[in-house]
Each structure stands twice: as C-alpha cells, then as structure tokens.
Protein: Carboxymuconolactone decarboxylase-like domain-containing protein
Amino acid sequence: MKVRREVLGDAHVDAATAAADAFTEDFEELVTRYAWGEVWNREGLDRRTRSCVTLTALVASGHLEGLAAHTRAALRNGLTPDEIKEVLLHSAVYCGIPAASAAFTIARSVIQEETRPPA
Structure:
C-alpha cells in the first residue's frame, strides 16, 4: 500500500479503496499486493522507467481509463511533461496514431491541471 500511495497519491488510492465493496475488495487487495507490492517494488527498474513502460502499455492495450492516473504518477515519479510527450510520441509509432492521439488528449489535460500554478 505504501508504494501504491507514493506512486498514485493518497486521493486516488483512497477513492479506489472507498469504492471497493464485497464484490471488488478481493480484487483491490490483489492489485495492491501483486502490482504494487511485487512488481512496482522490484529492483531492476526505477520508478521513472516503470512509469514510461506503464504509459506505453496503457496506450498499446487501449486501456486509456488508467492513463490519467498514471500520467499523474509519472509526474510524481519525476518525469517532466516533455518526457511524457516523448513517451507518447514514441508510442504513436509502435501503438498507432489513434491510440496516441487519445492518450495525448488525456495526458495534456492532466499535465495542465497538475502544473497549473496555484491561484
């Protein structure tokens, strides 16, 4: 849970766990234990690299519903907006222009939100 919170942020994790019910709570526990406890916690790749891989995998698989959360995570893991742009441009070549176009729309919105100076 510690890694999940560090990467995705408390608000995202709190919302996901609060939405869990008797039907989905086992799945939430699996995601926390397997993805965040085993995979994201492994040595061998740093979190910046894992974020690059994750963004690309989401584009490639068409699972863009997770792209906003993982764009925020990428920023939290130290990627700059320009580096995220480069990941998405690279993904366009290998994953397809339409998938990357949709990803750019989502990522741009998140980056604008996350990098907007406080009012």
Remarks:
- The CA atoms of residues 53 and 87 lie 9 Å apart.
